[in-house]
Design goal:
Elements lengths: L1 H20 L12 E6 L7 E3 L6 E12 L13 E12 L10 E9 L4 E10 L27 E14 L4 E3 L3 E8 L4
Parallel strand pairs: 2-9
Antiparallel strand pairs: 1-3, 3-6, 4-5, 4-7, 7-8, 7-9
Length: 188
């Protein structure tokens, strides 16, 4: 009797495991009837000089709202998205492995249903981060060379994901958008 109950319990748990693993519902992944995409525009900086100690700001980021179901309308404006934050994730595109930690920034603005929001000069690398690993290796007093690649610059991938909420209260996230930046130190 005890063995039958134990087997039945194990079979029930094993059958439920795929459903438990699939119930993560990250912010905005499937909850909202809208999703956002990000475009960096045509004036993306391809180089970032850490010498001045200034933040890297992207001149333009355009958020566009898309309906998951193209036949849906929103006459009351309940699917307007209030953008609250964005997360910047870094990867190396040059074979190196050291990257700055992810950074979260506050953001404000609204994206109308099936509309756009143009944002200007939003930071993706803070001045403090530009002086820390791995960028600190590019400073002259540290040798001026990335020790992992032997190069005087770092080719970095920057992935930006926006988060917000619709007026109706459903969470929304943008599709991650990535661009490449060359980080260097130049005193000129």
């Amino acid at each position: 009797m005890k063995r039958t109950i134990t087997r039945a319990l194990l079979l029930t748990l094993a059958a439920a495991l795929p459903f438990v693993a699939g119930c993560t519902n990250k912010q905005g992944e499937t909850e909202s009837p809208v999703f956002l995409t990000t475009d960096f525009g045509t004036t993306v900086p391809l180089q970032f000089n850490i010498a001045p100690g200034a933040p890297l700001q992207l001149p333009t980021m355009i958020l566009t709202s898309h309906a998951k179901n193209s036949s849906v309308t929103d006459p009351q404006g309940f699917q307007t998205v209030q953008v609250t934050s964005y997360v910047v994730h870094f990867t190396r595109l040059d074979g190196g492995t050291k990257v700055p930690p992810d950074e979260t920034f506050a953001a404000g603005g609204t994206v109308p249903f099936k509309g756009t929001l143009a944002m200007s000069n939003f930071p993706v690398i803070t001045p403090a981060a530009s002086q820390q690993s791995p960028f600190d290796q590019l400073l002259p007093f540290n040798g001026g060379i990335d020790q992992e690649t032997g190069q005087p610059l770092i080719h970095l991938g920057i992935t930006v994901t926006f988060y917000g909420e619709t007026v109706a209260g459903t969470r929304v996230s943008s599709a991650p958008a990535t661009l490449g930046i060359f980080v260097l130190y130049s005193a000129q």
